[in-house]
Each structure stands twice: as C-alpha cells, then as structure tokens.
Amino acid sequence: MNHNSLIKKLVGQTAIYGLPAIVGRLLNYLLVPLYTYIFNTAEYGQVSIVYTFSALMAVLLTYGTETAFFRFANKNNNAESLTLPNQAQNINTNPKQIYATLGRGLLLTTAITTALLLLITKPIAAGLGIAQYPQFVTWILLILAADTITSLPFALLRFQNRPRYFALVRVVGIAVNILLNILFLVVLPKYANWQPHIKYIFLSNLAASVFTLLFLLPQIKAMFAASFNRQLWQTMLKYALPLIIVGLAGVSNMVLDRLLLRWLLPMPFAEEQVGIYAANYKLATLMALVTQAFRMAADPLFFSQANNKNSPVFYAKVTHLFTAGGALLFLAVTFCLPVLQYFVGPQFREGLKVVPLLIAANICLGIYYNFSVWYKLTDKTNAGAIITTIGSVVTLLINLWLIPIISYEGAAWATFLGYATMMLMAYIWGKRVYPVPYKILRMMGYAAVAFCVYWFSEKILPVWLANSSGYLQYILRIFVFMLITALFFIIEKKSK
Rounded distance, CA 227 to CA 141, Å? Predict the structure, then answer.
C-alpha cells in the first residue's frame, strides 16, 4: 500500500474513531451550559476535581496495556521475534494469546486495585476536598473499573480494523450518559418533586460505562479464548510499565492544574477559579478530541508499517498534515469564540481568554505524539517516560510560580510550555535514534501563519472595522480561513 493510500486510510479511520468522541463532546457541550446554569462555580469545581482524580487513576489501572497489545500483536503479524525471558528459544505466540494474556492480567489487577480503593473512599474524598461526598469516590471507582475493563476490547476492535463497531459502541455509551443527564437534571425537576444535584452527573456516567461494558461482552469473553502465558506477560509488562510514567505525566499535564488551583488559591475563590477554568477548558478540547481520534487510528497503522523501509517518509508526511490541520482548527475555533462563549454561563466567560492558548497547547501535544513514534517502534519506552516526566516537572514548576500570581491564566501557560517542552525533546532525541525527514520549517510556517492571522483578527481588524457591522468581520474571517486552507492544501499537494 503506497503512502497516499495509507494516508487516506488514516484520515478515514480518524474520522470514524473521532466521530463518537466529537459527537459526544458536542453533546457534552450542550451539558456545559446546563451544568453552568444549574450549578454554581464551586459545585462545578467539585465535579472537575473528581474527574481529575479519575483521569490520573485511569492511567494506573490500564498501565500501557493498549500500546503493548498493538506492539506485540503487530510484531507477530510482521514476523518479528518475541524474545521471552528464561527460554532458549522463542515461544510461538499469536495476537489471540497476546490479547488473552493481557486481558486476564488486566481483569485481575483491576479487581484487586478497585477493591482496595473502595476500602478507603472516605480518606480519598477528604483529600479531594469533598469529605461530605465519599459516595462520589465510590461511583468514580466503579466507573474506572468498567472503563478499564473495556479499554482492551476497544483496542482489539482497532487492531481488527472495525472502526464502525467501535464508533457504534462509543456513541451508544455517550447517548446513555447524555439522556440520563437530561432526565435527572431537566425532565424530573420540571415534572416531578426532584432536586437537581451534581451526584446525578456521576450516576449517569456510571450507567453509561456499565452499558458499554455489556456491549463489549463478546470481546471480554475473548480474553479466555487462549491460554495465559506468564513469560509473555512479563515481557509485555517490561515494555508497558514505563508507559505508566508516560501516561501519568501526560495526564498530570492535563489535569494537575485543577488540583493546584484548588491548593494554591484561597477558598472559596479557589473552587470558583477551578470551575471557570474547567468550563473554558472544554471549549479548547476539540483539538484534544482530534488528537485522540488520530492516535486511535494511527497507533495500529504506525506499528503495522514498522518494517517498511519507507515508513519514516510516511510518518513525516502524516506529521506535516497533522500540523496543518491543527493550525486550521486553531483558527476555526478562535474565530468562532464569540459564538462559542454562549456554551458557558455568563459567570464563566471571563475565562475565554485562555482558550486560544489551550488549543495551541493541545496542538503541541498532538505533534509530540507524532514525534514520539520512535520510542514505541524501537521498544525504548523508558525514553518516553523520561520525556514526559521532564515535561511534567516543567508544567508543575510553572504552575507553582504563576497560579498564585495570575490564577488559571498561569495554569494555561504551564500547560502550553509543558507540552512544548515534550514536543521539542521528542524531536531532538528521536532525530538521533530513529531519523524521520520532518520538514520543520514548513511546520513552523503553518503555526506562524495561524498565530499571525489570529493576532491580526483580534487586535487590528476590530479597530479598522470599528464602525462597520460585526457581520463584515465574520465574512472576512471566513474568507481568510478558506484562503489559508487552500494555501495549506496546495503546499501539501505539491510536496513529496
């Protein structure tokens, strides 16, 4: 399959994998005004804190099993040897046994970890600042358990190139969550003696996670279709465990700022700032969703091309396209902020100023994922742990410095600079280990064009057209966006 065909396949599968995430997030955007009009900033901040804890725990519970599955299953498909410990020769393994071994191990560790954490829900709740709601911790742990168990079945669907079924299951789970939120927070309060409460956000999520698990029972059953190979398990753990650090560092960059805002600012101001920041962060997550969908499609495809001598050229081309797409998405969202602001309540809109910076941060994260393919393909996952740890330290230090001074604006800057550090390190290190012919100047050009156009539209255009209709500004922005899109398309079309 040539590069153009591979890229078309990647784009198609990214669209399919991204559809449920993007549709779900768009539907969740409809919940944001619901939450921000029903609950005050402090209550919404409590929800954000619990989901911050959830994001960190999700990394520990899955411990890199998805990436390990793709790497070792594709090793078998590509006729690479699986060198197992304490053996004179290789064991004959196949994707079915690799999946069964990882799956049973994941079921066991999830059950043990969840059971232990359920014994200490009250101390966890106190640590999160919600001592009066230990049941929230219980519910989020059950959500985590269900989502962890389904993580590998979702990976199996991606490995089997079944994006449509993947999307169907995701959409059903999202629909259950959305409908239950509307039932508990809108319908029942209007037609019955029912008081809306933030607890229904978690209960709706729990029901959706259980529903998703039931949909994936055939894939869960497949975990018992082959024998458990202890030595294979040890080898895969050696590959996967450094990815825990990668995941924790990555998630901490995404969510630690909420905790630090709560800890570094005085109460109740802190909870209000967390709520404002979290609500506006959601407006910037379209880029994160695109990145997530891209990774879901790219990981199995990148691993499958590992032995192709022309794969570095393919990886470079994909990165160039991703950067161009990210720059265009940055412009699209920032141009639409005057409309998107109505997706949050009036008391949350002061935080709109950090949305462009957070979008730029997520673009850096997406480029980092492209640049970091080398350590997954060369089995140097320790390098990924080092890079993301340094990025997390940068993020933490900047948060500690800036949050007491400029509140959530400091958190946004810390996120951007942390991801930018990871992106640069992955590129510089990878250039020595696994050279890929990236056109860095072209990528910088895409970013520069997007930033300059955004700055002009925010600082200069309103002054020039101060006495004109607001519609004229929108028309000019649409025209410029179409012009830049055409320019980027021509550049990529002509490049080899």
Answer: 29
Q: Is 466 helix (H, G, I), strand (E, B) or coil?
A: coil
pLDDT score recorded for residue 83: 47
* Helix locations, 93-133, DSSP H: 95-118, 121-127
Q: Measured between alpha carbons, how far is 218 from 153 in angstroms, rounded to an integer?
A: 9
What's the token pair of residue 115? 């059971």
Closest by CA to 148, choosing from 84, 228, 62, is 62
Query: What pLDDT was estimated at residue 20?
Result: 64
Interval 323-337: pLDDT, tens: 999 999 999 988 888
What is the longest distance spanned by two Cα atoms in the chain?
81
State pLDDT tens for residues 281-291: 877 877 777 77
Give the span between the Cα atoms of 145 and 397, in whole angstroms.
32
Share of the chain above pLDDT 90, in %: 32
Task: At 172, list the tokens.
Answer: 């059903």
At which residue do the structure tokens 């919404």 appear?
44
Which letter does DSSP use for residue 20 in this model?
H
> Rounded to whole angstroms, how far apart are CA atoms 100 and 110?
15
The label of the residue with tokens 């070792």 reads 72
pLDDT at 86 over 50: no
Q: Which of 382, 137, 408, 400 is nearest to 272 (CA)?
A: 408
pLDDT, tens digit, 9 for 90 and up, residues 390-408: 998 999 999 999 999 998 9
Q: What b/e sequence results for 273-311 when a residue is b if at least 16 CB atoms lie within 10 Å of its CB, and e otherwise?
A: bbbbbbbbbbbbbbbbbbbbbbbbbbbbbbbbbbeeeeb
Angle, helix 95-118 to helix 65-77, in steps of 10 degrees: 170
Burial of 68 (0-12, 13-18, 19+ CB in 10 A): buried
- Read out DSSP for 350-404? GGGGGHHHHHHHHHHHHHHHHHTHHHHHTT-HHHHHHHHHHHHHHHHHHHHHHHH
Question: 441 Cβ partners below 8 Å, 6+ apart?
Answer: none
135-144, 205-214, 263-272, 347-356: least confident range: 263-272
Q: What is the DSSP letter of 86?
A: T
Q: What is the pLDDT confidence band of residue 79, given thresholds at 50, 70 and 90?
A: very low
- Which long-range contacts (C-beta less than 8 Å, at least 24 apart) are formed by 281-285? 281/354, 281/358, 282/25, 282/28, 282/29, 282/32, 283/29, 283/333, 283/337, 283/340, 283/343, 283/344, 283/352, 283/355, 284/333, 284/354, 284/355, 284/358, 284/359, 284/361, 284/362, 285/25, 285/362
